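Project standup — Tuesday

K.O.: blocked on the structure for the chain from last sprint. Re-posting the sequence here as requested.
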Amino acid sequence: MFTSNFMEKSKTEIALPGKKNAEFQGLLQMVYSMVETPFTIENYFYLLKLADEYQMEVLLRKCEDFLVAVSGSICAGRLSIHNFLTGFSSSQQSKPEKEQVLVLLILAQEYKLDRLITVCVREARYFSLKELKEDYQELCDLLEPINYCQVLEGIIERMDGRFCVF
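H.V.: unblocked you, prediction finished:
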């Protein structure tokens, strides 16, 4: 938009409806700063959204790097990601760390973060089929079929390993 042949290229002021000033300033700081601004659990989501919207592949990959790096803490429940799925009410019996695995997987698939998808699918294989069906059905309904199948295959492979008869 700023470097290609779009009409915005020659304008001195560009309206960005729906964008928060602080978030867009954070994006510009991330892109143009000589000193790299660190990703945090507070800024990753808006940076990810803006990087996707403005097709900033390098920034998207940096967001993915950050999420992969902290995924262990998120999946273990030591670090909480902001629940970007409004309207989701978790079951009374759901475990927050398991819920976060699925929320992170949904986020990864929404932004096509393949390495993060792989990490989340690997982590989700430790669910039971009953948990997926009863406690996390709302979240599972948001999974793309291929990711849901990979989770189920991982659970089945794990179960096969337990019940091997020689």
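K.O.: great, moving the ticket to review. Residues 85-94 have pLDDT under 50 and may be disordered. The radius of gyration is 19 Å.
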